[in-house]
Amino acid sequence: MRRRWGQHFLKTRDMAWRIVAWAGLQTDRPVLEIGPGSGALTEVLLEAGYAVVAVEVDPHWVEYLQRRWSSESRFRVVAGDVLQVDWRRLGLTEPFGIIGNIPYEISSPLVERLIRYEGAWYRAVWTVQREFGERLAARPATAAYGALSVIAQLRWSIELGFIIPPGAFRPPPKVESVVVRVEPRSDVPDAVRAPAFSDFVHAAFRHRRKTLLNSLLRTPPWRDRADAVARCLEALGFSATVRAEQIPVEAWPALWNCVMAKSKAHRA
Q1: pLDDT single digits (tens) 65-97
Q2: What local confidence, expressed as pLDDT, does residue 224 receive?
Q3: For 130-178, how does the pLDDT look when each residue is reduced to its tens digit (9 = 90+)?
Q4: What are phi and psi of 84, to 5 degrees?
Q5: According to the model, what pLDDT value does residue 1 have?
Q6: What domains are defined for the chain?
Q7: Tens-digit pLDDT profile for residues 97-140
Q8: Which of 1, 43, 194, 226 has the maximum number of C-beta atoms within 10 A of its C-beta?
Q9: 210-216, Cβ contacts within 8 angstroms, sequence gap of 24 or more
Q10: Is 5 helix (H, G, I), strand (E, B) or coil?
């Protein structure tokens, strides 16, 4: 079995059917499949009645998929990197569903793509490294909770599905995988869409052993707003020694709005 770009291929139809069934995608909406590889999920999706556009980076598998389903009008494979192609130019009626067995190394960049194309998709179902999935869904005051947790949960509802053991793939990865289902939230705070909000959250978590204030003091340009952050933490009922991982997800937009307001007032 050919393997490149960190690919691990599902071995059985039973597992592919289980993933597609749990995904619960709408059969009357098209599906963007990310990294179909040898077509284990593709086969099940087509049998279940979906129209599928698959994006595959490996020319070998592109050719294989084209040959295998050359007479299937509901299937089309696009040669390219899903992190580079324009999802809105794939000919998919929006909003579309997304599914894929994701190479572990593109999990984080794929989050950025999902954010970029919000509005184009209604549900995404990935098979990812278990540790990454747990970071997406992590709760405050846990080891897995971080900037990724905050940014993802403020934008999407996230549900972890079932664990997939390494032996379900060929070749087997070294760690367990998990199926994750995400859907865009309808109540995304305006602060979350601010260009610098993500930078602020990442800066707050950058030094996990430090307090939130000390972490920001080590990261320009936030070090110049430390006084505003301290006053905002107090206004929101947090101690000056609070760490980023102790701040609940829903409190981050309020903290951001407060810091921005006090920073503007100070400059004025």
Answers
A1: 999 999 999 999 999 999 999 999 999 999 999
A2: 86
A3: 999 999 999 999 999 999 999 999 999 999 999 999 999 999 999 999 9
A4: -115, -35
A5: 45
A6: 9-186 (3.40.50.150), 191-267 (1.10.8.100)
A7: 999 998 888 999 999 999 999 999 999 999 999 999 999 999 99
A8: 43
A9: 210/243, 211/240, 211/241, 211/242, 211/243, 212/242, 212/243, 212/244, 212/247, 213/240, 213/241, 215/244
A10: coil
Q: What is the CA radius of gyration of the chain?
A: 21
Q: Counting every residue, how long is the chain? A: 268
CA distance 147 to 154: 11
Check residue 180 and report its DSSP letter. E
Long-range Cβ contact pairs of 187-190 (< 8 A, separation 24 or more): 188/154, 188/155, 189/154, 189/253, 190/253
SS3 18: helix
